[in-house]
Each structure stands twice: as C-alpha cells, then as structure tokens.
Amino acid sequence: MTTERPPFPDRRDYIVILAGVLPHVIVEDNGCWSWPRGHNDQYSTIRVRGDDGRRHMYLVHRLWIQARGTAAGREAHHRCLNKGCVNPAHIVSVTAKQHRVEHARIRHQNAA
Ligand SMILES: [Zn+2]
Ligand SMILES: [Zn+2]
Question: Which residue from 34, 35, 76, 107 could staple onto 44, CB 3.0 to 4.6 Å apart?
Fold first, then answer.
C-alpha cells in the first residue's frame, strides 16, 4: 500500500490537480472512470510536484476526498469496488472501521 504523500496546505490545490486529471479519464459503459496513466497495486496514480520541489505519487481516488476536505484520518472507499476507478460519484470517505465492516459485508454477500 502506498503511503500518503505530504498533503497540500490548500484544498484548492487538489481541485487544480483534479482539473488536470479530468481530460484524461475514460468513461466506461458501467459508469466507472478509467485512468490510462500510472497505477500502483491497481490503484490509479498521478505524479505531482510538491512544495519541496520533488515529484510525489498520489492516489487519484484519494484526491477527491482531499478536495472535499473529508480525508483527514479517513479512508477512501470505492462503492463500485473497482480499485482503479476515479469517478468521484463512486468514491466515499469512511473511517477505517466502517471500511473493514463494509468489505466484510461485501465478502459475506459474495460468499452467499
Ligand atoms: Zn467506479
Ligand atoms: Zn473499500
């Protein structure tokens, strides 16, 4: 799992980054947005220059919850269960506990 890169001080920084992401997404028939560029462990990634002047890797789906201001201490969950999806409508912020419970529920459902 990728470690979270130093957060930007201003939420608007995330909106600027995401504005650069949008022209490259591929809208799939199922509503998911694919990312044709970098991936890490199936998650879509982007390299962004930080305040330190160096390029860091960010997880694109987490940028949405950063932009919403709901990222601190929370995890981003894909409601579509497609790890590579970058559609903000499919990405919600949850606590670590909620996230474990949700995935346990999904596993249970799939096993039934
Ligand atoms: Zn999706
Ligand atoms: Zn999840």
Answer: 35
Q: Which DSSP symbol is given to 110? A: H
| 7 pLDDT tier (thresholds 50, 70, 90) | confident
For the chain, the structural domain boundaries read 11-111
> What tokens does 41 get?
């462990």
Ligand nearest to the backbone CA of 101: 2
HSE on the CB side for 34, CA within 13 Å? 6
Name the pTM for this structure: 0.88
How many A from CA of 79 to the centre of ligand 1? 7
Distance between Cα 28 and ligand 2 center (Å): 20
- Class for the domain spanning 11-111: alpha beta
